[in-house]
Amino acid sequence: MPEHRIFATAFAKVYPLYVQKAQRKNRTQEEVDRIICWLTGYDRAGLQRQIEQGNDFRTFFAQAPALHPDSALIKGVVCGVRVEDVEDPLMQKIRFLDKLVDELARGKAMEKILRR
């Protein structure tokens, strides 16, 4: 099976789309950053470095300090796919991130998004 093209897509190309999606629903870039940092373990400087370096999603997640232990609690559907059922570990991480940004854009409280 050929590899999905999102793996080789630069995170920096998709990041502004996450921010725009959130901002259209009156959420902020800071909230998007907070979600990304929560999921990946990056601090803001580390996140900024990833964006500036133009790393693809594979590298972005490979260099992430640590996936949050509560990421296993992320459940639901993104693009018609149940995130908890995604078999490819990298694709599942990408779907987790999509799901969290979706929840932010839908107005969910930050405490719920961060699985507290």
Describe the model:
- Helices cover 54% and strands 3% of the residues.
- The chain is built from six helices and two strands.
- α1 (11-24) packs parallel to α5 (89-105) and α2 (29-40) runs antiparallel to α5 (89-105).
Topology-level CATH name: Helicase, Ruva Protein, domain 3
C-alpha geometry: globular
User: pLDDT under 50 segments (min length 5)?
Assistant: none
User: If you compute it from the alpha carbons, what radius of gyration comes out, rounded to the nearest whole angstrom?
Assistant: 13 Å
Mean pLDDT: 95
Assigned CATH superfamily = uncharacterized protein sp1917 domain
Name of the CATH architecture:
Orthogonal Bundle
Main sheet?
A: 2 strands, antiparallel
Distance between the termini: 37 Å
Q: Helix share of residues?
A: 40-55%
- Give the helix tally: 6
How are the strands ordered across the major sheet?
1-2
Q: Strand-and-helix sequence, N→C?
A: HHHHEEHH
Number of strands: 2
Number of domains: 1
How do the helices and strands line up, and which of them pair or pack?
Layout: H1 11-24, H2 29-40, H3 44-53, H4 57-62, E1 77-78, E2 81-82, H5 89-105, H6 110-113
Antiparallel strand pairs: 1-2
Pfam families: DUF2200
Protein name: DUF2200 domain-containing protein
Quick synopsis:
Pfam families: DUF2200. This protein is mainly alpha-helical and 116 residues long.
